[in-house]
Amino acid sequence: MEKFTVLEGVAAPLKMINVDTDMIIPKQYLKTIKRTGLGKGLFAEKRYRDDGSENPDFVLNRPAYRKAKIMVAGDNFGCGSSREHAPWALKDFGITCVISTSFGDIFYNNCFKNGILPVQVSPEDLEKLFDDAERGANATLTIDLEKQEIRGPDGGVVRFEIDAHRKHCLLNGLDDIGLTMVKSNQIERFESQSKAARPWV
User: Are 17 and 75 in contact (CB under 8 A)?
Assistant: First the structure.
């Protein structure tokens, strides 16, 4: 997993509440177990018309936001079913930080396991960040995980809280497998000692 330290980029404003995981990545894209290639299906039912052409009104299809790295979204983002494909699709599109006032619990946990930073802010701060995001490509946000702050284009700063262990994992690029591999020496030592003590096992 890639380390998340400082992210600077365009933020796409998605002023919708209760965006569920089915909207983030519709069910027809769930056949794969690969983490790549899902970016094309991100918000597919909003991004594309019935004939497959792009919906020019959807935020990610607007020129300013086609390469967005951050999403500013309404309350309860990522609610609904527990599909890990939702953070996979966001990451494959290029979005590695989502900012909202609240998240669906399973989606929130899945983000950390896939190198995405979900940031919870107050309703007042969210409105300010929506204003920043709506300026388009001319205004970028900077997410500094170490300092736990979001810096806006006008110099304003929004602070956020994050669990210390999750922060450590993102800063060091550690998913569940990575956390296990950090202890590989201890695991090998235990296995050697166990084999010597119980050779019949």
Answer: yes
